[in-house]
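Review form for a predicted model. The reviewer records the input and the model, then writes brief findings.
Reviewer: anonymous (R2)
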Amino acid sequence: MRNYLPRFFFVLAIIAALSLSAFGQVSSSGSLSGTVVDPTGAVVAGAVVTVKSVSSQEYTTVTNGEGSFTIPALADGVYSATIVAKGFKTAAVTDIKVNVGTPSSIKVALEIGAESQT
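Model under review:
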């Protein structure tokens, strides 16, 4: 019986150590990414994307050279996004659902016009 006891604790310790890495993979937030394009489908770099939650938390980012943006850590909830770019009308997207652990995505096609127009 004594020979099995140290082996049992050794195996138990290995299992416990390997289980800890699984807990680190649980996410407590979601993310929102997207692409901003013009009426022809060409990407729009440098567009300012502002995302607001219903509790008025606000996050702002700018699209990269490929017209893409990412906001990596958002709480679970419903958001709206406003996209502003020079030479285009301001665009708004509402009712964007963000769930914990699940990436959300939007694609916004801007219309040509003045920024003050919506």
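Findings: The chain is about 15% helix and 40% strand.
Further findings: The longest strand covers residues 30-37.
Recommendation: see findings above.
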